[in-house]
Amino acid sequence: MHVLDTDLPDVKILEPRVFGDERGFFFESFNAQQFAKDMGCSTAFVQDNHSRSARNVLRGLHYQIQQPQGKLVRVVSGEVFDVAVDIRRSSPTFGRWVGAYLSADNKRQMWVPEGFAHGFLVLSEFAEFLYKTTDFYAPAHERCIAWDDSTLAIEWPMPEGISPVVSPKDRAGCALAEAEVFA
């Protein structure tokens, strides 16, 4: 696994070593020992999630204020623009975001640690998105920051004249200035 730094020091892009030939390909998508070595931390994942979304669906920006979840995310079909936002008030990068293109073709993964809000926009006809989490889903603690918060100014790669498809929950997301964030 090759680990790439992003503009947010705690968020990383992981590129697997892919072995392929005319028959197809193989790669190791997760190895706890290698992850601990590469990331410098021992992380236990407790839940795997799988979602499928259509083109222009935007999910996020989600986080859990209690039972925060670190997420190791990847796409197994299609392509997304994946975003992490630092919402740790004491962090020097508080309120900054980083985005990366994740796809079935590039096989990249993004590590989104606890203390970050997360979202993604589907760029292909559909995308199947997999992610491991470090804590269980806790709906009572789930929060949402508005995907279009002007203070964040996330540069979502939306086609001109197209609006994203957003759930009612995500449409009701609050501004970062009003959000319950981490210390």
Describe this structure in words.
This protein has 183 residues and is mainly beta. The chain has helices at 32-39, 168-171; strands at residues 2-5, 12-15, 19-21, 24-26, 47-54, 58-64, 71-77, 79-86, 97-103, 109-112, 116-122, 126-133, 142-144. The chain is built from 2 helices and 13 strands. Strand 1 and strand 2 (12-15) form a beta hairpin. The longest helix has 8 residues, at 32-39.
Tell me the layout of helices and strands:
Layout: E1 2-5, E2 12-15, E3 19-21, E4 24-26, H1 32-39, E5 47-54, E6 58-64, E7 71-77, E8 79-86, E9 97-103, E10 109-112, E11 116-122, E12 126-133, E13 142-144, H2 168-171
Antiparallel strand pairs: 1-2, 2-10, 3-4, 5-12, 6-11, 6-13, 7-10, 7-12, 8-9, 8-11
Sequence stretches where pLDDT stays below 50 over 5 or more residues: none
Mean pLDDT metric: 95
How far apart the termini lie comes to 32 Å
Q: Approximately what portion of the residues adopt beta-strand conformation?
A: 35-45%
Structural class: mainly beta
Helix content: under 10%
Taking all Cα atoms into account, the compactness measure Rg is 16 Å
Largest sheet report: 6 strands, antiparallel
Please tally the helical runs, counting DSSP H or I stretches of 4 or more residues: 2
**Total strands:** 13
Biggest sheet strand order reads 1-2-10-7-12-5
Q: What is the element string, with H for helices and E for strands?
A: EEEEHEEEEEEEEEH
General shape: globular
